[in-house]
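Structure ticket #2291
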Amino acid sequence: MNTSQEPQGSNAALVRDAAAGDESAWSGLVERFSAPVWAVAFTHGLGAAEAAGAARVTWLRLAQHLSRISEPERVGAWLAETARQESLRALALSRLEATEPGAPLPRTIG
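Resolution: structure written out below.
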């Protein structure tokens, strides 16, 4: 499906092809960037369940914004930043859930 000047399998080509509905391109993105997405979540101190949630939402955000990625060759950086934001959101939520009823709410990020 690669009809542009980008090398087949490049980040930009995978983003473009996945946005056009190519399931193998989407799988290529997931295979290429799953480990870094998980690493970001674990670096923020999330446990396995919270890291899985942050990773899942990160991939959902990519699916939602795939056709609007302004620099598709930098999709790895986009995913890392999105994983960071989702990890921070998960941390804030876990702190909020750990707050005892009646206690002052912790300051959240985002």
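Closing remark: The chain has four helices and no strands.
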